[in-house]
Amino acid sequence: MDLINKALKFEKQKLNSLSTSDRVKISREAKSLILSLNEIYKVKKDKEIMDIMKRLTAIKVKVEKRLKGKPLTA
Question: Which residue pairs from 19-27 have beta carbons closer than 8 angstroms and sit at least 24 positions apart in sequence?
Fold first, then answer.
């Protein structure tokens, strides 16, 4: 359950005023945590693990949206 604790700790970290490299690191870390939790979920089918993965995915999407920037309007 060390992985679940690591995911919960990751979820609680502050995400304001980050540099681009920090955003890339957070995105990669979130992806690796999600994939690792998914392997556990395949075996246990625990709803709590799925909820954690959903929250981490939301954080990852938010960070990646900021990385890509505003789309240019034509």
Answer: 20/67, 23/63, 23/66, 23/67, 24/67, 26/59, 26/60, 26/63, 27/60, 27/63, 27/64, 27/67
Global confidence as pTM: 0.81
Percent of the chain with pLDDT over 90: 38
* Under 8 Å between Cβ of 57 and 13: no
- Contact of 18 with 26, CB cutoff 8 Å: yes
Instruction: Write the pLDDT tens digit of every residue in 36-51.
Output: 999 999 998 989 999 9
> What are the structure tokens assigned to 7, written together?
């995911």
